[in-house]
Amino acid sequence: MFGYVVPDKPNMFIKDFTLYRAFYCGLCKCIGKRCGQAMRLTTNYDVTFLSVFVHALTGTAIEIGNEVCILNPVRKKSVVKRNPLMEKIVDVNTILAHYKAVDDVNDDKSAGKKLADALVIKRHYKKACRRYPEAAEIIKKGFDELNRLEGERCENEDLIAHQFATILKELTRLLAGEDYSDAAGDLMYNLGRWVYFADAFDDADEDAKKGEFNVFLAGYEYKDRETFVKDKGKDAAFVLNSSYREIMNAFDGVRLKAYEGVITNIVWYGLREQTDKLLRRTDKCKQRTRI
User: Quick check: 107 pLDDT over 70?
Assistant: First the structure.
C-alpha cells in the first residue's frame, strides 16, 4: 500500500528536491544501520513523506552530510543523518513493512514473500515492536480491523478506508507529540483515505484475477481494465478528489516550522498529479523505483 505520495519534480525547486532526496536517502541509510542492509528495500515514498512532515511539524533540526550509496558507490549524495526522530520513523516503517508482507502473502500465496518476511522482516519487526510499543499497538489495531472488514467483504468503503486513515493520523499524533495539531491529524487522516482508495483502484486488475477483496469490485463483475475504468471511474474520482480536497483544506491550518517547500509541492502538486494519473492510467501508478 505504499508508493503513491510522491513529489511533482517538474514543479519542484531544485533546493526542495535536493532536500526531499536527502530525507529519502537518510531514511534508507537509517534503515540499513538500524535493521540491516536487506531491510533497505522497504524504503518507500509514503514513509518518506511522513518523515518530512513530522520533522517539519516539530521543527526537528537535521544534519545533512554527503555520503555514497550502495547503489552508487562513486557519486556522493546529500543525506539527512540519523536522529532520534528518524529512528522512531524507521521502527514505524519496519512494523508497517511486516503487515504489508503478511498482506502480500495472503493475496499472492507467495512462498518467496512468506520466506522473506520470516527470514528478514519479522525479526526486525519484533525488535521494532519492543522499541516502540505505542506505534506497534496503533498499527496492529488498525490492520486487525482492516483485515476483519476486508475478510467480511464489507461494502462500506468509508468504514474500511477509515482504518488505514486512523493509523496515519494516530502515528502522526504519536511522533509529533506536543507539536501535533488537529489540522495535521486531519491532513494525515485524509491522506490515509486517499492512499487506501488509490491503492485499491490501481490494484483492481490483480485483485479481480486473484479473487481478492477490493472496495471497487464489491458487487461488480470485472471484465477488463477499460470497462472497469468506464464503469467505476466516476466512483474512484469522487472518493479520490473528495479526499484530496479535505487534505488541501486541512493543509491551510497546518503550521510547519521547516521544509514547507517540500511539503507544499507534494500536497499541492504531487497528489493532484497522482490522482489524475490513477484515473487515466494504463500502467501501474505505484512508484517502485528509487529517487
Answer: no
